[in-house]
Amino acid sequence: MDLSTILSRVQFAFTVGYHYIFPQITMGLAFLIVLLKTLYLIKKDERYNISARFWAKIFATSFVLGVVTGIPMEFQFGTNWARFSAYAGDIIAQTLAMEGAFAFFLESAFLGVFLFGEKVFGQKVHWFAAVMVWLGTWASGAFIVASNAWMQHPVGYTIVGNRLHISNYWEVLLNPWIFPQYLHTMSGAVVTGAFIMAGLGAYYLLAKSHIDYGRIFVTLGVIVGLIASIIQLYPSGDLEGQQVAKYQPAKLAAFEGLFHTEQGAGIVILGQPNTATGQLDNPLIVPKVLSFLTYRRWEAVVKGLDAFPPNQRPDSIELLYYSYHIMVGLGTFFIPIMGVACLLWFWKRRLFTTRWMLWILMLATPFPVIANTAGWFTTELGRQPWIIYGLLPTAQGSSANLSAGNVLFTLIGFAGMYLLLGLLYVVLSVTEALKGPESGEGEEAGIETEGGLPGLATGTVAEG
Amino acid sequence: MATLWFILVAFMLTMYVLLDGFDLGAGIIHLIAARTDQERRLILRAIGPVWDGNEVWIIAAGGTLFFTFPVLYASSFSGFYLPLCIVLWLLMWRGVSIELRSRVPSPVWASFWDGMFFIGSTLLAIFYGAALANVIRGVPLDEHGVFFEPLWTDFNPFSKTPGILDWYTILIGLMAASTLTMHGAAYIARKTDGALNARARRILRISWPITIVLTVMSTIATFAVQPQIYASFNARPWGAIFPLIAFLGLLGVGHFAFRNRDLAAFFSSCAFIAGMLASSAFGLYPDVLPAVEPAHSLTIYNASGSPYGLTVGLIWWIIGIVLAAIYFVFTYRLFWGKVTAKEEYGGY
C-alpha cells in the first residue's frame, strides 16, 4: 500500500473517529430529551421542562460540532477515495444521498423550531419538534449504517465492466447486515447519552448544587443506561458476533487473537498478540467459551488466522485486537455499574446519598465514547484489507492522483482544526454544565451582554 | 434520464447558492453593516434559524451528484483536492463562528468570531466562484478521466497550465463575492429595520454597480476561455431565456434597491443568480466537466450512474425534495418578518 493511500486511511479514520464523538452524543441526548419532555407533559412538573431545555443547550453545541465535522466525511469519498467512488458510487451514494434528503433536512428544520420556538408555538409543538429531531438524528444514523453495512456485506449489485451497478434497491436497503449493526450503534449512542446525563447528575449531587436536577439526571441516566447497556451486549452485540462469524471469519479470528484454528476455542481476557511468532503473549484465557458464544457448542471449531492466506487477513491485527477488547471490556463493565446504581435507586433512593456510587458514575462519563470509538475501529479495521468486503481491496480504492505530500498537508490541517474545535467544545460544554439548568431561566436571555459576568457565578445564585 | 439528473443537480446547486448565498452575504457585510454588539447579534438572529438548513443543500447536492454521476464525483473531487479541503475548513470554521459567538459574554471573544465569520464567508464566496470558473474553463483530464490541479502556478494569463486560482477564476470569484454581497445585503435589509436596515440598503446600492461591471467582465472572459458556451447558445437559441432572466434580475435589483423595496430586490437578486447559474449549466451541457483535450471531457453519457439506479433514485428523490420543500416553507414562514431587539435572541 503506497504512502498516499496510508495517509488517506489515517485521515479518514481520524476525521470519522473524531466526528463520531458528536453524533453519538446527539443521538443519545435527543432520545433522552424526548423522555424529559414527555415526562414534563405527563407530570406537569416544570423541572422536567427546565431539564429538557438545559440538555437542549448541550445538544445544540454537540450538534454544531457534529454538523461541521460531518461535512468533510461525505466529500472525502470523492477527494481521497476516488477509485472507490467511481467503482461503487452507483450503490453506496444512494444511501448517502438519502441521508441528506430524508434526515438532514428534517433535523435542521425541526431543530430551529425546537431551539427557538417553544414560547411561540406552545408545549405540544415543542414536544413534537423534539420527537422529530430525535427521529432525524436516528434516521441519519440508519442511512450511514446502511452505507457501512453495504461495505461490510455487499448485496444487490451487478458488475458491469469495471464498475458496480445497483441491481436491487430493496436488497441494498434491507441488507441483513443493517439491523444488528443499527441496533448496536443506536443503543451505543444511548449508553453514551445516559452516562453523560447520569455523570453530570452525580456531579451535582456530589457538589451539592442543583440537587433537584442532579436527582432527575441520575435517575433517568441509570435506568436508561442499564437498559441500553444490556441491549448492547444482548441481543445486538451477540447478533453482530454471529454475523461476523458467518461472513467474516478472518475478522473474528483477529478479534480474538486466535492465530491457530482450534476446537473448543477459549475466550481471551488479557494478552498481547505477537504477529511475528503467531501467538498470544501473557495469555489469560477462559477455555471453550469462544466456541460456545460463536456456535452455541462448546466443542465447535473456530477458524484461526492461519486458515486464511496472508492477503486475506486484516492488516493491523494488533490494533484490531485491542479495539475489540477495549470495546467488549468496557461494555461488560457498563452493565454492573448501571445495575448496581439502579439497585441503589430502587432501594429507597439510596443512590442519591451513596457517594462512592456517585463517584463511579461521574468518573465513568467518558468511557462509553471510548467504547463506541473502539467499536468502529473494530468493525472497520476488521473489514481490511477490503474497502468493499470481498470486492475491492482498500489499496485499489484510493485516489491515484494524490501525492502523499498533499494528503499529509490536509491531514495536518484537519488535526490542527479539530484540536481547536475540541478545546472549544470542552470549554463550552463544561461551562454550560457548571452553570446548571436554572441559569438563564426567567431572565431575558441575551440582553445583558457586554461586561456581564461569565456565567459561573450566576449558577450558584440561581440555585435553591 | 441523465439529462433530467443534470437539470436536477444543477437545480440543487442553485438552491444552495440562493439560500446559503444570502447567509454568506450576511457574513461578508456584517462588519460594516452592523456596528454594535446588538446589531451583530441581530444579523446572526436573521440567519440563525436557517443557515444550517441552507447548508444541507450542499450536502444533499453532493450526495445526489455522487450517485447520479459517480465518475464525475470521483474525478472532480480528487482533482480539486486542495481547494475542496480548504472549502471544508472554511465551512466548518464559519459555521462554528455563527454558533459560538454569543456563547461567552466577552467582547474580545465576540470580536474574534465576528472576524472569523467575515473571513470565512468572504473566502467561501470567492472559492465558490473560482470553483465554477474552473469547471467552466475545463481541466486537464487524461484518457482515464483523472486530473490533478495545483492551487496556483504562475498567474500568467497565457499560461498553458493555469492553476485553480489564476486571473480568470479569481475574476469570477470576485464577481461571486460581489453578487453575494448584494444578495446578503438585500436579505439583511429585508430582515431588519432602523440603522441596520439603512446601512444594508446602502451596501446594496453600492454593490449593485460593482456587480454589473464584474458581470460584464466575467461574461466576456468566459466566452473567451470556453468557446463551447457560445456554440451551445448558437445551437439552441431558446437557451437565451436564462441570460435574459439574469439580466432582468440584475436590472430589478437596482430598480427596487433605489425604491427601498427590500424583498423585491432580494427576489430579483435570486433571479439574477439563478439565471447566471442556469446559463452556465446550459452552456456546458452535455459536458459535466470539460477537458482541455475535448475528447477526454466527462459528459452526461460517460459519467452517469446506471439507468436502474437513476430511476429508483428519482422516485425517492422526489419524495425527499417534496418533504424538504414543506420543511423549508414551514421554517421560513415561522421566522418570517423582521428580527427586532425586543424579542428573544434564541442563543445568538
Task: Please tag this protein with its features.
heterodimer; A: two-stranded antiparallel sheet; two-stranded antiparallel sheet; 7% strand; disordered C terminus; B: 348 residues; mainly alpha; 11 helices; 2 strands
Short account of what is shown:
The complex is a heterodimer of chains A (464) and B (348). Chain A is mainly α and 464 residues long.
Largest interface between protein chains, with number of residues from each side: A-B, 79 and 73 residues
Global outline of chain B: globular
C-alpha geometry of chain A: globular
The radius of gyration over CA of chain B amounts to: 20 Å
Spatial order of the strands forming the largest sheet of chain B: 1-2
Q: Compute the number of strand runs of chain A.
A: 8
Instruction: Quickly count the domains of chain A.
Output: 1
Largest sheet of chain B: 2 strands, antiparallel
The averaged pLDDT of chain A comes out at 88
Strand coverage percent of chain B? under 5%
Write the element-wise H/E pattern of chain A from the N-terminal end onward: HHHHEEHHHHEEEHEHHHEEHH
- Percent in strands of chain A: 5-15%
Order of helices and strands of chain B: HHHHHHHHHHEEH
What's the SSE blueprint?
The complex is a heterodimer of chains A (464) and B (348).
Chain A: H1 3-43, H2 46-80, H3 82-116, H4 118-152, E1 157-160, E2 163-166, H5 169-173, H6 178-207, H7 211-247, H8 249-255, E3 262-263, E4 267-274, E5 279-286, H9 289-295, E6 301-302, H10 317-346, H11 355-363, H12 367-383, E7 386-388, E8 392-393, H13 404-435, H14 456-462
Antiparallel strand pairs in A: 1-2, 3-6, 4-5, 7-8
Helix pairs in contact in A: 1-2, 1-4, 1-6, 1-12, 1-13, 2-3, 2-13, 3-4, 4-6, 6-7, 6-11, 6-12, 7-8, 7-10, 8-12, 10-11, 10-12
Chain B: H1 2-33, H2 37-68, H3 70-79, H4 81-100, H5 107-137, H6 167-191, H7 194-225, H8 227-235, H9 241-257, H10 262-284, E1 287-289, E2 298-299, H11 307-334
Antiparallel strand pairs in B: 1-2
Helix pairs in contact in B: 1-2, 1-5, 1-6, 1-10, 2-3, 2-11, 4-5, 5-6, 6-7, 6-10, 7-8, 7-9, 8-10, 9-10
